[in-house]
């Protein structure tokens, strides 16, 4: 396919130089394929090798259909045009950022999902999702390697008076070797997302499977749970307090995991990481509970300052990352200060990505080999 | 709440007898609550204690909004009426059947999902879902009891040249007692559904947790995988052949499960069951492979005849069920014939339900205690 793309690009350059194709639509390479996160059997939405997305939505009697995705990811939108067959069609005005994007469709003023796409929980609703193939997508691809499991658990939570859901990634071989014990990473989603995000949008289980198959990491468990409690209303973070979730995580979930899974149940073998709001949570909880976690990671979710940390000897790793389209200088400055203060501190900047999941997939891939060394 | 309902019914009868409330809308009891399978924080769709459903969809510029659900479950539809605030509203013309229903919304001729409801895979698409509280809903409720896990596995399938997904229910305690081995039920979804159906729509993990907590069953594993292979096109069953799926199930999935989970890996401790199309598959595969399964169950998915079975000594249980609104006489006739022929045969008819998930939840609850005795 790369070969094909190069040939077509070359053909475009030639034709452009002869003035054959001056109109802007001809610059779009017609190698569109269904997005890899479409519903089964659905042709649309489609993406091409340049990163354009094309939509097709049936709504014969509608007055207007607008897709929330436009140029460069989440910004802007794409207004579709109705065909005589009742389908609304349109293509983004330019190439979108590589990776996963949330979107929705506004039909006559109402917000719906694209019937062609799978849904993912983001922005406190199940949104449509689309994948723009990334040049480095191999690291999160489903491959013919041994696969770990993603286990849904329901753990009792006295503090919130309910059974709460979490997902636990157990590496390949977990069920076979009945004595081996594993370190554990507690991994949090972002605002408006939930405990499904890291495996559905983040593909973290596939990234782990691939890293393990390549011998690049020491296998560990990953625990992903919902990072909000009842006091947080949907729609805002203004009243956010860390204590209720900290209680769920530290006093309820960790003991349940240590009792029901084969863990190395100590501070040295326990890490916490989170993206965006999950980074805020990680920052607060790791600082509040230095006796619980030894490895800390913030993915597009703030920074650490040396003066925030009470007992330097307890911190084995500080990892801070973001996309190059976010604020990489803040990440670099923070990590330099942490290094200068003598911490094992690592920064990572994801090239050409913003506050979206490709940043966090890549960040996770960089983080995983550094954990529990 | 029951108290409240009775009071309101009584008030209605009184007012009706005085001629105060003759218009039909007054017969609807105004105790609507959000459906239990709404998206987080969403008020609509709502259901009342009589089984009416009420919808509210924002689409200010639309010409028409119709919900596919009407009286008695999937039949008919409900046309919504636009309010001045741009929301379309409407209530079903009568009480719907108890239990879970799929539905969607037609907006100006296009099919979308209700933004208020969670989605469930049915009819080869992710559909909106709604729960009409059933009088016996307690058996599938999330309770404060020990919970089993639902594990997503990806198993290698040579015959279809991919990694296929399945879900494995492991009972509470599976992770703690590291030596105990369990019988296994292979449980199939219906046409247009997939391997997510039995836990999402069927709540089979919660039914198991509750039956185990009550000491009513011997714990077993449940394996749920996708029952279609590539040769089946979306939209029809005309070209259905059992062999490709039988190969996946018997030659690929079962060995993987027996190798990766603590199973009693023999015919006596292996059951197969399925709903609707999954019943057809169960019927074919159990008859083709008597050396693999000993317990057979068809849930709204056909019947067995004594003359179909090659070796009677290998069959430990035949269970056949359906809803009373399906064809219960066929089920009863079949089971009578099986009993007359000397089989351990059991029928079950779910009262006042059709070809829908409450029939199958109830059928499963009746089946589970009969397995592996």
Characterise this structure.
- Chain A is of the alpha+beta class.
- Chain A has 2 domains: 3-14 and 139-370, Rossmann fold; 33-133, Immunoglobulin-like.
- Chain A has 7 helices and 20 strands.
- The first copy, chain A, has helices spanning 2-17, 197-200, 204-213, 243-260, 277-288, 328-340, 357-367, and strands at residues 33-34, 46-47, 53-58, 65-67, 78-79, 81-82, 87-91, 99-103, 105-107, 110-112, 119-122, 125-132, 149-157, 162-170, 184-188, 221-225, 270-275, 295-299, 317-323, 345-350.
- In chain A, helix 5 (277-288) links the parallel strand 17 (270-275) and strand 18 (295-299).
- At the A-B interface, strand 10 and strand 13 of A face strand 10 and strand 13 of B.
């Amino acid at each position: 396919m790369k070969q094909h793309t190069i040939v077509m690009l070359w053909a475009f350059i030639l034709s452009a130089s002869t003035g054959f194709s001056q109109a802007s639509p001809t610059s779009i390479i017609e190698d569109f394929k269904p997005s890899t996160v479409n519903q089964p059997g659905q042709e649309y939405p489609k993406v091409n090798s340049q990163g354009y997305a094309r939509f097709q939505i049936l709504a014969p009697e509608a007055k207007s259909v607008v897709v929330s995705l436009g140029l460069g990811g989440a910004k802007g939108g794409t207004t579709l045009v109705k065909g005589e067959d009742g389908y609304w069609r349109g293509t983004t005005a330019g190439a979108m950022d590589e990776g996963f994007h949330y979107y929705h469709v506004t039909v006559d003023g109402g917000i719906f999902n694209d019937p062609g796409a799978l849904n993912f929980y983001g922005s406190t609703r199940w949104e449509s999702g689309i994948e723009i193939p990334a040049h480095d997508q191999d690291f999160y691809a489903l491959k013919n390697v041994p696969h770990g499991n993603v286990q849904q658990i329901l753990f009792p939570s006295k503090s919130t008076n309910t059974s709460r859901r979490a997902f636990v990634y157990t590496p390949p071989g977990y069920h076979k070797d009945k004595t081996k014990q594993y370190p554990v990473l507690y991994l949090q989603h972002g605002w408006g997302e939930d405990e499904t995000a890291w495996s559905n949008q983040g593909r973290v289980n596939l990234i782990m499977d691939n890293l393990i198959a390549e011998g690049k990491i020491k296998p560990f468990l990953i625990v992903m749970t919902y990072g909000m409690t009842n006091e947080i209303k949907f729609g805002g973070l203004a009243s956010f307090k860390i204590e209720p979730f900290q209680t769920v995580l530290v006093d309820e979930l960790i003991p349940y995991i240590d009792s029901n899974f084969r863990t190395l149940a100590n501070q040295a073998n326990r890490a916490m990481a989170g993206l965006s709001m999950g980074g805020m949570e990680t920052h607060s909880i790791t600082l509040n509970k230095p006796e619980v976690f030894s490895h800390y990671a913030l993915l597009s979710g703030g920074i650490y300052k040396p003066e925030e940390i009470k007992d330097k000897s307890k911190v084995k790793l500080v990892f801070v990352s973001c996309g190059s389209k976010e604020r990489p200088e803040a990440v670099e400055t923070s990590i330099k200060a942490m290094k200068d203060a003598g911490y094992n501190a690592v920064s990572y900047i994801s090239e050409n990505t913003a506050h979206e999941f490709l940043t966090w997939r890549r960040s996770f891939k960089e983080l995983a080999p550094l954990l529990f060394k």
